[in-house]
């Protein structure tokens, strides 16, 4: 006898549609409710999906379509200032990262959901929920309601569901950086598939050869306060480029990449956030997934992959166990893993906004730290080789 038959999923980004697809595969009817009025096709910058994230996408039939529109990044290089370049070792035999446009992944997931008959309703902003012993009802700003056996909050770092589960839950932490991206006309002497992580004198950036020529550059600009996407995009691109020139102008090749980035080609993505550990992942018939409960900083390279994993693992637990045992099993399977990745990323993140002393010592310390500490089989291997055993029954 199936314990859960229906689910309301709040959030139409990545974790929400993946959860709905995995629930459908498990025989559970799910409907996704997204607050934005339209789909996000073509919107957003690029993200890297690690082998473990692609394996989880394979479970819901989205892995191969994602690889088809992505570009492999099989080589990673660390660059400190103008000096030494260090090839970053990778775990053996796990495959490359796949760099994909966020908007393309949204489109793939939406098309997969449509093919499976899963509804995604836009313009439905959650404002509350009513719980009963055997059901939960989502209440939306438009006055509508949706009743189901469980409610899944996959509504991002600014999650409404997280506050419904625990009004005292922590909110997202600002990383001290704003995100920018663009394709610069400047060329870099790198082979295709090479991603370079560069620590400049005053800020961090990364870059890789663009498919049609030029160089794709992602910038984490140190900034004293967070700005929403709307606030950041209200600033003219020309003004942002002047700021980027002041911060990265003396870096190689960062200065050239910024100087040859046209205002029309600068994409402003707003503030970068991470989530501290969340004490309560679930309550009653409500549960959190994805960035709503674990959003490591972008230094991890695992944000999207962990969100996909959790969405699939949650569906597996709901397939096999009753509430609340399913939620408890899901948290047991996920919490230690995601918090370990987040803690490691937080350490890296602090080096992206170095003070004056750290800036001076960075060229000396970073190669030593890389040589002594970065042991891929120990740190990255267990993360990237992780696979969800979907056929195996989830247990308490």
Automatic annotation (TrEMBL):
Q: Which InterPro entries does the record cross-reference, listed alphabetically?
A: FAD-bd, FAD-dep_Monooxygenase_BioMet, FAD/NAD-bd_sf
Give one Pfam family, short name only. Answer: FAD_binding_3
FAD-binding domain location is 7-175, 280-344
- What superkingdom does the record give? Bacteria
What GO molecular function annotation could you give as one example from this UniProt entry? monooxygenase activity
Q: What keyword terms does UniProt attach to this protein?
A: Monooxygenase, Oxidoreductase
Record Gene3D superfamilies: FAD/NAD(P)-binding domain (3.50.50.60)
Supply the name of the protein: FAD-dependent oxidoreductase
Q: Which organism is it from?
A: Actinoplanes nipponensis
